[in-house]
Design a protein that fits this description.
By secondary structure, the protein is an alpha/beta fold. The chain is about 35% helix and about 15% strand. The protein has 12 helices and 12 strands. The strands form 3 sheets. It has a 7-stranded mixed β-sheet with strand order 3-2-1-4-7-6-8. A 3-stranded mixed β-sheet has the order 5-10-9. The chain has a two-stranded antiparallel ribbon with strand order 11-12. Helix 1 runs parallel beside helix 2.
């Protein structure tokens, strides 16, 4: 019997091409031992985008997969009603938090959300046997540069890749807790859904292996800088080096280098991304304008990566993130923050 891997993408039509390239990379690297059940929470998806996704079947006839497009308009309306702030003009980033509205009546018991800004050079076959150890979700505790307003012991995870254990998600009343969290705490996080998940489930999530969230800034880094960057105590040197050598999912995040799909990109995975794009139904597309605009610090780092040695740029980048996190933590002490800790029923307490 084949293994089954369930996958969730989400975007509006503006970023359908990114989902399409990520999905194309997955299908190119698919395992014959796996059935891929792929879902797409799509907002305002155009007929042209639907046709391109449908044409993937002709390009990958030997891959055993099912592709389901889910109209996400109801998710958007619900988050608007909760009065959360949009993220760069969109509510898409929140949709996965209400995923059980769709999956509760299906046979899907576990599903990994994969961000649109990714490439998938691995087969993901190992996810079929992943042990959640009773946790409702798994995220990757990567490094401590994202702490911002939180104590040093805070486990900061990137919410692009989240593996949901749906039976435990329901048993832990996760959706209800997220909605209560939004109503009681408000939307105070710079990274929106990421902040909600990190704080609400701080002591409850399992560790997703690093190979499922390899940040695209790092493959060129020296071993010393790789260890400096991945300084979360759960990461062993062996896991870090193996993840970089054999990534399952590459996270092509928006940075001062710009994504490969953006005009003027200096991203280290430009050739890799455009290679997958040009073998997909989105072949021939032109780079899009970069957004949002860079701040002063980002402009400085962009200049450095164009003119200074890489080892120095990497070192400065890593330590500037840590120092900036300390600065924000110290200068925002009087502001409302969230206490890391739950009461008996899991309610987050604010101080």
């Amino acid at each position: 019997m084949k293994k089954r891997v369930n996958i969730l993408f989400q975007s509006d039509d503006n970023f359908a091409f990114m989902v399409g390239v990520a999905m194309s990379s997955l299908l190119e690297n698919a395992s014959k031992n796996v059935f891929y059940d792929i879902y797409y929470f799509a907002l305002n998806l155009s007929d042209a985008s639907r046709a391109r996704f449908a044409s993937l079947r002709e390009r990958h006839p030997d891959v055993d997969y099912r592709f389901t497009v889910v109209d996400a308009a109801d998710f958007e309306r619900e988050f608007i009603a909760l009065h959360v702030h949009d993220h760069r003009g969109s509510y898409v980033t929140y949709f996965k938090l209400l995923l059980d509205r769709y999956f509760k009546d299906t046979d899907v018991d576990r599903i990994i959300h994969i961000g649109a800004d990714t490439l998938i050079p691995g087969s993901l076959e190992g996810l079929a046997d992943f042990d959640f150890k009773g946790a409702p979700l798994a995220m990757n505790w990567t490094e401590k540069g994202h702490e911002r307003y939180h104590p040093w012991r805070y486990r900061a995870s990137i919410a692009e890749m989240i593996y949901f254990n749906l039976p435990e998600w329901r048993a832990h009343k996760c959706e209800e807790r997220i909605i209560r969290h939004i109503k009681e705490i408000g939307d105070i996080y710079g990274s929106k859904d990421q902040g909600i998940l990190n704080v609400e489930f701080q002591d409850e999530y399992a560790q997703l292996p690093l190979k499922y969230n390899v940040y695209d800034m790092i493959p060129h880094m020296s071993k010393k800088n790789l260890l400096r960057y991945h300084n979360a105590p759960v990461n062993t040197p062996e896991e870090i080096f193996d993840a970089v050598e054999h990534p399952e999912i590459i996270h092509i995040a928006r940075t001062f280098l710009y994504r490969p799909c953006e005009e003027g990109s200096l991203d280290f995975n430009n050739d890799l991304w455009w290679g997958y794009c040009n073998r997909s139904p989105w072949a021939g597309m032109k780079p899009i304008p970069p957004y949002p605009p860079l701040g002063a610090k980002e402009k400085l780092f962009r200049w450095l990566y164009q003119h200074a040695p890489l080892w120095l740029c990497d070192w400065l980048y890593i330590y500037s993130r840590r120092l900036f996190g300390v600065y924000l933590y110290l200068t925002h002490l009087p502001r409302k923050r969230v206490n890391i800790g739950m009461d008996a029923v899991g309610a987050v307490q604010s101080i």
